[in-house]
Design goal:
It holds the Pfam family CBS. The chain is of the alpha+beta class. The chain has 11 helices and 32 strands.
């Protein structure tokens, strides 16, 4: 049994044995946990990935005459000003008001780290003590009094992998997901990740000193959405001491901006149990692949999977081999673990035990909300359909008699094969065509599922500029149709 004080003394003396989490796996396998605990003093870990719940508190100093900022923008990215007069919090996912998803809070932070100046623009309502109502100036990281990175949720212990069962490409915070289970993406670095090497959080808690963005930082508590074994950390550090090498802004196409954050945590090997914990391998770390093709909070689990399987670059889904790609950088995570090892060996980084442990057991609760309206509650059912062999004339009569504008086209088993609209029919009649519906129908049809929230259906109609969606079951059979008129009636209630 060792203490952190004893380990720190060895660090000061230059005699501490420090290894990375990758090296520790082999040591424990060779010596066993008991001997490894006597041999090793510190195990360094690392992770590098998109950490959207991140940002920086700035104090800009007072202008002359003074201003109490009501709104403030840095390079056209708005920061939160509901604190003191010249304090603001810039979140990494906040988008530029001029460039949109091409530039956001994460990019402002990286620009500042790289020594660039950014435009500060602020407005105010003016008071007796803060009479100024607007200001525009240029600032650099050196100009601000404080730039304190405070990240509410970082360093996920493990993360759910993603795939897509739908027929269309999805742009998500898990990257671009291809249709029909075309790919799988995952986040986290598995056996090198800090919290996986101390799953009971014996040495990771409030006050633990960490490597954050190339500088010393601290754990300030459990992160938001902390739900072990999907644990998270709230952390902070001084942005002025950090390096752009370990902070990279990025954009997920169709989703938004983020910041890749580099973090490492030293694990003191206090006893054999800690040595055993740091011997964890990717084969031991499980997560699940969930289906983003279902636009609900509780997305279906496709299958369980280990990080070893994910890192192999392929997994099996429904008997088919599916490509897998990471969203986190194992290369950078390993680099961070090695750099932290060197800092400790040089006596530049001492360990600190938490003053308070974070919960090892916690349940994440969903948002409390009113009943979620789903498509089946507003759709017209049964749907009036035709077949590809239906004549254009008969389809035209059906539209007129039923007072509708859309006819799903189905095969003999009721499966959707296309759709024809009153506009399609009108064009055909005007052009003197008298053939079959199959000749004029749209074959690539945007659909809805019966349990899909109406908000999702409305977004599909808006983004695709269409006015109705056939509703299909899991086998692709048409069970109804929902129109923009149906949704309008719902909103009018």
């Amino acid at each position: 049994m060792k203490t952190v004080d004893e380990i720190n003394q060895k660090i000061v003396e230059g005699s501490a044995n420090v290894v990375t989490a990758i090296e520790m796996k082999e040591i424990v396998q060779e010596l066993g946990p008991e001997k490894a605990a006597k041999e090793v003093d510190v195990v360094t870990t690392g992770t590098f990935g998109a950490m959207c719940s991140s940002g920086v508190f700035f104090n800009f100093g007072h202008s002359d005459p003074p201003i109490k900022m009501q709104k403030v923008w840095l390079n056209d990215v708005e920061a939160y000003t509901g604190v003191a007069a010249v304090d603001a919090y810039l979140g990494v996912t906040q988008l530029s008001e001029t460039l949109g998803m091409e530039y956001g809070g994460g990019h402002v932070i990286e620009d500042l780290l790289r020594g660039k100046e950014v435009e500060l623009r602020a407005t105010a309502y003016g008071t007796d003590c803060y009479p100024r109502k607007e200001i525009v100036t240029e600032i650099s990281l050196e100009d601000v009094n404080q730039a304190i990175m405070v990240n509410p949720r970082n360093a996920y212990q493990r993360y759910r992998a993603a795939t897509n069962s739908s027929e269309r490409i999805l742009k998500t915070y898990m990257g671009t997901l291809l249709p029909d289970f075309g790919n799988v993406t995952y986040a986290g670095v598995g056996e090198l990740s800090p919290m996986n090497n101390d799953p009971e959080y014996r040495t990771i808690g409030v006050g633990t000193r960490i490597f954050l963005g190339g500088a010393k930082g601290y754990v300030t508590g459990e992160g938001t959405q902390h739900a072990p074994p999907f644990g998270t950390l709230m952390v902070q550090g001084n942005l002025k001491e950090m390096s752009a090498e370990y902070m990279r802004a990025a954009t997920f196409p169709g989703y938004g901006t983020t910041l890749f954050v580099g973090m490492g945590i030293p694990i003191p090997i206090l006893d054999a149990e800690m040595a055993k914990a740091t011997a964890v391998r990717d084969e031991d770390i499980e997560t699940v692949i969930i289906d983003f093709g279902v636009p609900r909070r509780d997305r279906p689990v496709i299958r369980k999977v280990t990080y070893a399987e994910l890192k192999s670059g392929k997994v099996e889904i429904n008997g088919e081999e599916v490509r897998v790609s990471p969203l986190s950088s194992y290369y950078m995570a390993r680099k961070i673990a090695e750099e932290l090892k060197r800092m400790i060996e040089r006596g530049e980084f001492l360990l600190s035990m938490p003053v308070e442990r974070i919960p090892a057991r916690e349940v994440f609760r969903p948002m409390r909300q009113k009943e979620v309206k789903v498509v089946k509650s507003v759709m017209s059912a049964p749907a009036i359909t035709v077949t590809p062999d239906t004549s254009i004339t008969d389809a035209s009569k059906t539209l007129i008699e039923k007072g509708i504008n859309h006819l799903p086209v189905v095969d003999s088993s009721g499966k959707l094969v296309g759709i024809v609209t009153s506009w399609d029919i009108a064009k055909a009649v005007a052009g003197g065509r008298s053939g079959r519906v199959g000749e004029i129908m749209t074959r690539k049809v945007i659909t809805a599922s019966p349990d899909e929230p109406v908000e999702v259906a409305a977004r599909k109609m808006e983004s695709k500029r269409i006015s109705a969606l056939p509703v299909v079951d899991a086998k692709g059979r048409v069970i109804g149709i929902v129109s923009s008129e149906d949704l309008s009636k719902l909103l009018a209630r």
